[in-house]
Amino acid sequence: MLPFHDVVADDFSEVNDLIIRQLYSDVGLVENIGHYLIEAGGKRLRPLMVLLCARALGYTGKHHLDLAAVIEFIHSATLLHDDVVDTSTLRRGRPTANAEWGNAPSVLVGDFLYSRAFQMMVAIGNMDIMTILSRTTNIIAEGEVQQLVNAKDPDLTEAGYLQVIEKKTAVLFAAACEVGAVVAGADASTRKALSQYGMEVGIAFQLVDDALDYKGDAEALGKNVGDDLAEGKPTLPLIHAMAKAPGADRELIRNAISQGDASQLSQVVAIVEATGAMEYTLAAARAAVARALEALTALPDSRFRTALADVAEFATGRNH
Question: Could you say which protein family the record assigns here (predicted)?
Answer without folding.
Answer: Belongs to the FPP/GGPP synthase family.
